[in-house]
């Protein structure tokens, strides 16, 4: 047993890179997730969206869908950078999330498994900050691209921040 006192500041995986150390093409995988009934219910509760296309399977079938259809925002949140290694890599240099856009290319149904990925596409340095742009993609279990978009983050330039 160690006599060294615990320090929250030292509870860090040590992966942080500066803005200048990031590279175009760098990828950040986000763990896959199967869209379960529990996730549908949690999203309904959090969003307040009660349209039957998302929560009534018979309504979905009458309208040509094989199962409950995931809400677009329910799909987008699967690309939340914080669910993967991204926050550990940018560390304390992250100032904020600036914007996001998304296109929904194929339906996502209850039971589908989604595979999100963020890929650095642009690094725009400014005076004391930089804008990191990533392409966000989500594929399903059949390898189909179901969503693509872009996210932008504001980072500090220079030395590693803790």
Give structural attributes.
single chain, alpha+beta, 5 helices
Low-confidence stretches: none
What percent of the residues sit in helical stretches (DSSP H or I)?
Answer: 10-25%
From the coordinates shown, what is the CATH architecture? Roll
Number of helices: 5
pLDDT averaged over residues: 91
Backbone structural class: alpha+beta
Estimate the strand proportion. Answer: 25-35%
Radius of gyration, taken over Cα atoms and rounded to an integer in Å:
19 Å
What is this structure's SSE topology?
Layout: E1 27-29, E2 33-34, H1 37-47, H2 52-55, H3 57-62, H4 72-76, H5 86-90, E3 94-104, E4 113-125, E5 129-140, E6 145-156
Overview of the molecule:
This protein has 162 residues and is an alpha+beta fold. The protein has one domain: Roll (Thiol Ester Dehydrase, Chain A). 19% of the residues lie in helices and 33% in strands. It has 5 helices and 6 strands; from the N terminus they run ββαααααββββ. Strand 5 and strand 6 form a beta hairpin. The mean pLDDT is 91.
Short description:
This protein is an alpha+beta fold and 162 residues long. Helix content is 19%, strand content 33%. The chain has a single domain (16-156), classed as Thiol Ester Dehydrase, Chain A, CATH 3.10.129.10.
């Amino acid at each position: 047993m160690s006599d060294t006192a615990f320090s929250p500041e030292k509870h860090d995986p040590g992966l942080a890179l500066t803005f200048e150390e990031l590279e175009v093409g760098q990828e950040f995988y986000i763990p896959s997730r199967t869209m379960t009934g529990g996730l549908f219910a949690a999203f309904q509760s959090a969003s307040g969206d009660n349209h039957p296309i998302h929560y009534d399977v018979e309504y979905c079938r009458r309208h040509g869908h094989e199962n409950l259809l995931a809400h677009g925002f329910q799909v987008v949140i699967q690309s939340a950078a914080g669910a993967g290694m991204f926050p550990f890599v940018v560390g304390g240099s992250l100032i904020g999330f600036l914007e996001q856009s998304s296109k929904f290319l194929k339906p996502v149904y209850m039971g589908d498994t989604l595979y999100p990925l963020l890929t650095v596409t642009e690094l725009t340095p400014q005076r004391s900050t930089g804008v990191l742009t990533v392409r966000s993609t989500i594929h399903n279990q059949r390898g189909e691209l179901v969503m693509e978009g872009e996210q932008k983050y504001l980072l500090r330039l220079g030395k590693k921040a803790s």
